[in-house]
Amino acid sequence: MENPGDTEFYKNLKKPFFQPPKWLFAQVWTVIYILLFLSLILIIKAPHNKLKTLAYILFVVQMILNISWMPVFFKAHKICEAVIISLFLFLTVAAMIFVYYKISFISAVLLIPYLIWSGFASILNFVICKIN
Question: What does the H/E/C string look like for the chain?
């Protein structure tokens, strides 16, 4: 599978000065996915809580948003539409932290890097949208 960052489309985009090197993306996402799934395991193993159903729904929603961003940005070349997905992802992760906190403090803390990265990614996506 081709690395999306190696496509001609992506190479030809103007990027802001704060664009991280492309090798960093895979490293960051690996850590985020590990933390995300550890967080989910803690939610699953937590004692019964009326918010667990909402926690699972939020997990699924963020996965759908996360997975849908790449084809919108890289395949459809809809850079500005991808910003909307990115913003909804950020808001969903924030909601996850709020709900997960009420179930498992550690689970919520594990999601903080995801929130920071998704916020940064939203800003980066927005700037790429504006300068292209």
Answer: CCCHHHCHHHHCCCCCCCCCCHHHHHHHHHHHHHHHHHHHHHHHHCCCCCCHHHHHHHHHHHHHHHHHHHHHHHHCCCHHHHHHHHHHHHHHHHHHHHHHHHHCHHHHHHCHHHHHHHHHHHHHHHHHHHHC
